[in-house]
Amino acid sequence: MMDWSDRHCRYFHRLMTRQALLYTEMVTAPALVRGGAVHLLDFNPEEHPVAVQLGGSDPQELAQATKLCVARGYDEVNLNVGCPSDRVQSGTFGAVLMRDAPLVAECMRSMKDVAQDTEVTVKCRIGVDDQSADEVLPAFIETVAAAGVTRFTIHARKAWLQGLSPKENRDIPPLDYPLVHRMKAAFPALHLSINGGITTLEDARAHLDVMDGVMIGRAAYHDPAGVLLGADQAIFGATDPSRTAHEVVEAMYPYIEAQLTKGVRLHSITRHMLGTFTGRPGARKWRRILSEGASKDGAGVALVAEALSHVPDHVPVS
Hints:
This protein has 318 residues and is an alpha/beta fold.
């Protein structure tokens, strides 16, 4: 979700669900510690509960980065051991760390030592390249759990670091949900969430019969109303009605105006809103107006309201 789940995206998604845990895009520990890019940790208080996802492989550097995250008030600090991009491979972090569970465990110990009461978690794959996932995944979980980690999110695909692009790694390696489900049976005391290829709340509910949690990434981004509106009711048992997608867009107006006064371009916010009406009448006009107009000088809330006027109102998802 790099370049996707930034603070504007998360604020928008939070208007759709009060209870789902939101994740930042991955922030590298070197960027924070050596590069001083602490602005990458900025978030809005309204985003809670929100987890920050770190990338790195140096235990001391990750500890320093964790301190910065804890000081900012994040609800969780997550180490990414699943991203297959070339950039993270060259930095020796991301999915390549599936090959070195002892190093991951050392990193997690260092992070936990400074995290105070903030939970420290891991997101991983089931394996990489020619590893035997049936052997590697349980050994990885056991080794890292011994460092005191109790929460894992498992992307149910291997990452092929040789031969597949990051984009291809999101779709081509086959999903192995049964293997991830078996991990919950093998490690009943751990909180295990499943990720990968899950696109609907119905899918999520089915996995929750076995797993402790479900992470949804791309589907929640491309069709946020379809996935996030109604999540509080369907997953968390909320009894109050969900907002409509129209109400969510209108609730964004004060935020947009405040961000524009800070010099943020409208496009930086509305690019995350293009999928709001996916599959609904008027969705194409909504996308076209925002795509063509949001980058122009002076574009603001009036443009969003104009785009919204072309989408027929609809009942809340519940």
